[in-house]
From TrEMBL:
PANTHER family: OPSIN. It is a multi-pass membrane protein. Receptor for all-trans- and 11-cis-retinal. Binds preferentially to the former and may catalyze the isomerization of the chromophore by a retinochrome-like mechanism. SUPFAM superfamilies: Family A G protein-coupled receptor-like. This is RPE-retinal G protein-coupled receptor. The keyword Transmembrane applies. InterPro entries: GPCR_opsins (IPR050125), GPCR_Rhodpsn (IPR000276), GPCR_Rhodpsn_7TM (IPR017452), RPE_GPCR (IPR001793). It comes from the Eukaryota. It comes from Seriola dumerili. It is found in: Membrane. GO terms for biological process: phototransduction; visual perception.
Amino acid sequence: MVASYPLPEGFSEFDVFSLGSCLLVEGLLGFFLNAVTIVAFLKVRELRTPSNFLIFSLAMADMGISMNATIAAFSSFLRYWPYGSEGCQTHGFQGFMTALASIHFIAAIAWDRYHQYCTRTKLQWSSAITLAVFIWLFTAFWSAMPLIGWGEYDYEPLRTCCTLDYSKGDRNYVSYLIPMSIFNMAIQMFVVMSSYQSIAQKFKKTGNPRFNPNTPLKTMLFCWGPYGILAFYAAVENANLVSPKLRMMAPILAKTSPTFNVFLYALGNENYRGGIWQFLTGEKIDVPQIENKSK
């Protein structure tokens, strides 16, 4: 059965198996860790605060990325995409929307932490829910545009998963890429950078650092930076000149973000970590009720 499907151009049997295995590990590990984060929020009353709701929302987005990776892993082991062109469009939309939502919620958490530590104002439920609804609707809008012709979804180089098609690099692609990147990546990176810089200055003055404010931005750049570089390279040069294996590194790195985010925002948050421990063991840990008190 496997032999009836030719290998994607530029990949060996070992390459396909290795990339599929990476996607499977990323998908299952990210799904499990974010599922625990989500269920803990729903089950442990002490976790249900507006700030933790943003972490819960990030976990929802990241679980969607992990599901997307698991489907891609299954297809990689088959060595072909079994769901047809409509399935490719659905897979591309779902993956793109959850990825954009994840980036937005990372910025929202940074914004909330800035107010938590620098202005001493706490997030209200009305603001948290409004922000979450706006993020999902906003990312759904940008992710739906390729379905109606502004941008396009197509196969990744491995041809077992789908995303925004950067292979053409034509006017349609560039006209979509630039505003999409500004509103869904550049602004978010600025919010993350400026928020944590302000927090770092606050920690320096007080001499009481509670977490490393440089880690969130570094992690964000590690996971999503290669995708951004590839996308903009495709706007000025033929992306097909880049090795297919090298192009596949961008989605592989991006799909590590759900796992990193759990350790940064759920397990790295003393209050949330205690709630997860209570959910898993039934043992309650008393921690100061200061939202987003993180390492």
